[in-house]
Specification:
single chain, alpha+beta, 60s Ribosomal Protein L30, Chain: A, six-stranded mixed β-sheet, RutC-like_sf, YjgF/YER057c/UK114
């Protein structure tokens, strides 16, 4: 009996070099036989600019936060989601205390839609001892109007 996979994985269009060993996005359709929703899990997105050996990499937290949110936005789009669909966000940073107000401002901008409505998903902010200056992961749920087709999703399994 052949088994139809319910988990699909994908990567951003411009993943950093370390993404070759993992996926940025996991999409789980539910219920499997006639999906009406999809659970979206997005791995930590760091503050790397679009992959280009010639691009300059900023060491400033807020610059990296802007790139991390742009990378997160691209992952959401690939999964058919928007920031409004995010159900939880986790932020890991080495600079939690020094610029948390400015970081929260960036998050508020990211989660504000065109009509000015601010989505406030549960958020965990953790200070870490080392690693990227910032890394953001998220979970989302998407309502499916029709059975999904992830043919454009790279690495679909």
């Amino acid at each position: 009996m052949s088994r139809i996979p319910i988990v699909h994985t994908a990567n951003r269009s411009n993943p950093p070099f370390h993404s070759s060993s993992r996926s940025d996005i996991s999409i789980v359709n539910f219920p499997p036989d006639n999906p009406s929703i999809a659970f979206v899990h997005i791995a930590g997105q760091s503050g790397t600019p679009p992959f280009n050996w010639n691009s300059r990499y900023s060491t400033k937290l807020l610059d990296q936060a802007k790139y991390a949110l742009a990378n997160l936005g691209e992952c959401l789009t690939i999964a058919g989601a928007t920031p409004r669909d995010v159900t939880k966000i986790t932020i890991h940073t080495v600079d939690l205390g020094t610029q948390s107000g400015d970081l929260i401002k960036l998050l508020t901008e990211f989660f504000t839609d065109r009509e000015g409505n601010v989505h406030k998903p549960p958020r965990t902010m953790r200070e870490v001892a080392s690693g990227p200056r910032i890394e953001i992961d998220a979970e989302a749920v998407v309502s499916l109007a029709a059975p999904p087709s992830y043919e454009k999703v790279t690495g679909s399994a």
